[in-house]
Protein: Zinc ribbon domain-containing protein
Organism: Candidatus Aveggerthella stercoripullorum
Amino acid sequence: MSELLSQLWTPQMQAASVVIIALLVILYVLSIVWVVRDAYRRGTVWFIWAIVALIPLVGVIAYLLMRPPLLQIDKDEQELEVALKQRQLMKYGECATCGYPVESDYVICPNCHQRLKNLCSTCGHALDPSWTVCPYCATPVNGQRRRAVQGARPNANQRLTTAPRQAAPAQQQRALRPQEDNGAR
């Protein structure tokens, strides 16, 4: 048996086996390096995967089965793309009455003529219904303007109650003069 083994184990076979073993060791080290780099690029805990990859063949297979599907840069790019699409879609909406697609700066629905936004009375820009002041010219929106004007002036009821008291003596004097003038004639 040893004679057969010595015939098969020639110096050429020894050199070939050394080369094969060296290639397997290089492949093993490269697989660990690949797992570490790939885990880092995918945003996972790379040093844990490096420890798992130290188990020959099983570690690499485990990593391949459980690694995240996207690279971190691809995931970030995808999130940015989704955010951009959402921002673009926010430019458009639907009419609450008929469901017709409308743009964000439409004042009325082109389909059913439902008023979507108010216009600023000063500068004419379209205003969102929830705004209390025009962001373009700082003019208070209709309901807010009335409150601001009422806060600056006396109340309408106060003016009515004070105005007749001041005007009443003058009206009484005018009412008395024509009677006196009629009696004097």
